[in-house]
Amino acid sequence: MKLLNVTAGAVIAATGFCSAAFATTDLTMWYHGAGNKVESKIVHQIIDDFNKSQSDYKVALQSFPQNSYNDSVTAAALAGNLPDILDMDGPIMPNWAWSGYLQPLPIPEDHFKDFLPGTKGVYDGKLYSIGLWDAAVALYARKSTMKELGLRTPTLDKPWTKDEFMSALEAAKKSGKFDYAIDLGMSDKGEWYPYAFLPFLQSFGGGLVNRKTYDTAEGVLNGDAAVAWGNWWQSLFTDKLAPGTSQDPAAHETGFIDGKYAFSWNGNWNAVKTMDKVDDVEFLPAPDFGNGSKIGGASWQFGISASSKAPEGAAEFIKFATQDKYLAEFSDALGLIPATKSAAQMTKNYKTGGPLAVFYGLSEAQAEKRPVTPGYVVDSKVFQKAAADIADGADVIDTLDSATDQINADIKRNDGYKKN
Amino acid sequence: MRSSLTSANRAGWAFALPGIVLILAFIITPFFLGVGFSLTNQRLISPNATRFVGLENYREMLNIAVVDLQAKTDSAGKTVTDADGQAEFPRLRSITRNPDTPQYHGMQEWFRWVSGDTAHVVIASDVVFWKALLNTCIFVLMVAPIQAAIALGLALLINQKLRGITIFRTIYFMPVVVSIVVVSLLWRFIYSGQNGLLNNMLSFLSFGHFQPVDWLGNPHTALGAIITMSIWQAVGFHMVIWLSGLQTIPPTLYEAAAIEGSSKWQTFRYVTWPALRHTAVLVLIVITMQAFAIFAQIDVMTKGGPLDSTQTLVFQAVQRGYGMQNIAGGSAISVILFLIVLVISMIQRWLTRER
Predict the structure, then answer these.
(1) Which of A246, A398, A419 sits opposite B92 (nearest CB)?
(2) Residues A229 and A289: beta-carbon distance below 8 Å
(3) What is the complex's ipTM, to 2 decimals?
(4) How far is A246 from chain B (nearest CA, A)?
(5) Which UniProt keywords apply (chain A) (predicted)?
(6) B263 Cα to chain A: minimum distance (Å)
(7) What is the model's pTM?
């Protein structure tokens, strides 16, 4: 007993001493970018700057490889071990918010009023996450190819129509100079599918799930518009305009640069690399298939875990990290779209007249988020399989019916993704 | 016996304890948890409480029916035919999305056969499960006998007293030591449809007459390609088990056979094979169980595609449990897989019992 008292006294004394000396709250932070040197250098620098800028909080970083990041967060949440600050892929946020992993940011939304819509993670009317950047997809083309094939250069105001797009692909195929007219990145079987291809379906007038009620996919994913999308999608592969699902990942990486493909449907994160190798590359907006030209929005974003004991501190850090200079720094290093216009002006690629400025416009004008529902994690997998199956030659209507049934069954299994 | 197991052998129990604890924690407990989960609507993550749903997950998975579609007829009552002269049938959604037949809602076509003007369509609530089950069975039926036979052949070849024989043993055993994920990645390059090693080799051997095949991208060749690669990968392991069996056969038996003037085949048939009986049972059961658990190759090489031609049960269990966050559905598949493997092992045990 005596020993216990002594120990307890010592502990109390020690804590008292520490808090008197430093008065610092420790915050933990998880980040998905392990393995990317440039990225982790910037993240470390932001954290260092933050820790030096004040003495109330001290952020410690733990990085994970992207492939296992979501699993790690899920495992940590089940074990009750979440960090204070964590980053997450935009479309998965509603699932984590619904599951109770996250708390709404204790920052007024006004603070982010200049941010691109795709960078704001709003679920259930509350802001849960904020991104330092957004990503955008564009049609990569060479000016020389465009000229040779006699194609009109599409603009944001006047994008290609479906017919123009298809005749461009046909012209590229006919020229006989390319293995395939367009590289869609079919080898990248994962979130790339819904991110890159769902906008096509949306531009046709279909969708993944009813976005008003989020309780069914019937008529949206298997309606006439969706069937039209499916038939068009399948024709790209049956007509040999695009390499199919067994495309070599290496060909997707370098195919456009090597001149194997006339066009490439690719993300802005590959733009800097491509510009280095292809002098006359230009980035064209998505074609309009009838309901406006659309691309996917929402990339990685920061949020605060529900179990954080110091959400104010975490919020301080997020405010600190979302300063323009860091947005610009990330953009310069990784080619991502900075979240604000003022930050864009500070970057070498996105300032007015910069080589990638077009992406800022794309993101602002065309970006549509993937369905904002906890069920998206499942919907995404269903869409991946449907898009791959149709590309592989499956019956379009049956495949879309089956995907619809799967999404509806999942919604039912989860009681409509409501909290009960 | 009893006393030696319980009291007089404390040290033995102490040594066994860590193993028993680990097996309890990581094999036996999860097994019962899996059975339990499969009777609920357990999800990977969800704020809502888990509910007991009885056999609902199994019903959803196993539900299967046959429906008939009548060929379309024109106004004169004649069957409408397409360009190839085949009768045209209405779409399946006229039944599965018809308010008059609610019992077929949410079901999809697995396969159909046509007789005259009627198409008999087998529909199931969970077609992917049935395809996965069928593929897994094909995989096991191909891999088990072929892999066991090749392994035995290799074991006989390397069970000789030649100089440098260990080099061959090492070579044959090498794929077993390399991680299956690495092996799968390498074979993806070998099978590549564009400039894969296999296509290049076949084209070279046939003086350019061979048309390149997209081995993993073609629904007709994908499963076969994975079967071939899987046999190659694990054959060394079973070769070693056969080899250990071969080396337990007393040389005197072979000497006696030689004195009797038996031929090589007779020696194998009447000396080697009977002596390998127990090894054969072991090898067959191990291969069968391993083959049912096929996962890594699928995950790395095809992800179940193209067109579900390489879906397998374990891949689906993982896909559902983690990908689709449906732990209950994944558990139900695991339980069914367990029952299948259990029944097959028992049949194999019975067929190869001591008579």
Answers:
(1) A398
(2) yes
(3) 0.85
(4) 5
(5) Signal, Transport
(6) 51
(7) 0.88
